Amino acid sequence: xxxxxxxxxxxxxxxxxxxxxxxxxxxxxxxxxxxxxxxxxxxxxxxxxxxxxxxxxxxxxxxxxxxxxxxxxxxxxxxxxxxxxxxxxxxxxxxxxxxxxxxxxxxxxxxxxxxxxxxxxxxxxxxxxxxxxxxxxxxxxxxxxxxxxxxxxxxxxxxxxxxxxxxxxxxxxxxxxxxxxxxxxxxxxxxxxxxxxxxxxxxxxxxxxxxxxxxxxxxxxxxxxxxxxxxxxxxxxxxxxxxxxxxxxxxxxxxxxxxxxxxxxxxxxxxxxxxxxxxxxxxxxxxxxxxxxxxxxxxxxxxxxxxxxxxxxxxxxxxxxxxxxxxxxxxxxxxxxxxxxxxxxxxxxxxxxxxxxxxxxxxxxxxxxxxxxxxxxxxxxxxxxxxxxxxxxx
Length: 394
Description:
This protein has about 400 residues and is mainly β.
């Protein structure tokens, strides 16, 4: 309010001066002094102030003063703090139940029809293992389907057995395989898989990859059939040190081997005519080569007058190229001379050869016996068996 009054007083002062100047006498009259002029101006201003005050009291007046040539202030944008976007939870989509396709070849285990796991047998005993399985796949099992040995111990079974009938999806089938208990005591497991005509292997379980198995325990070794047996070479076959023309080999060998040679045992040997015997037999296979051979050196045995070495030797069923020489040798313990007691040639002709050697001339001697087989050419079928090899005193 004080600013407005100052501006008004300044304006009135200027106006009074100008009016006083206009009221001066014309040219040629006496000129008033400066004091007169100031007196007139002051009077004029006082009159106008009084007039303004009177008018202000009567009615308010609004005086608008427009400022010119003032810089325009640039408006600053407001400072804003960024607000992170609000996370929107994803919309739950219900799962789609897509059907899982059923494999063409798949089986489900139902039960062990025979020989439950842990069944006990005497070494060399024959038995038939039967599994009941269901076709849980999408394809029928026709005549080209079979069960095959895949791992573990085959227990003398065939490598594969054809399924007994066609099996449609959802149906069950009993699958039987003839087996022979191993010749050593212990626990044994054999694993078997199904096979389609195109060679696809499949089994049981949720993904069809589990084999069916046979699990047995061999508890005892059969006694020899000859009641006069003094020493049983078959039972003690791993007491011998075995070697071939190539190297020494382990006893028992993991499998029959026509390349490096092998020694195994069976208490259900198969004869050349296909029949199975119930005597124990040592199965000796020479190493490959024209001079292929296999030999077992047994611990020393004290011989008495009347003792005999006895055995029955032969090849095996479906070994048409078998051609070997069986040889029994002896060496007095501490001596350097090895004496041949007898040699016996054998080929596959559906026959067996019996051996009976009187040892009376060695009465009182501690004797090391050797059982040896020589290959007479290609050793691929030289499956030479020493059945019921023993020292007996009839």
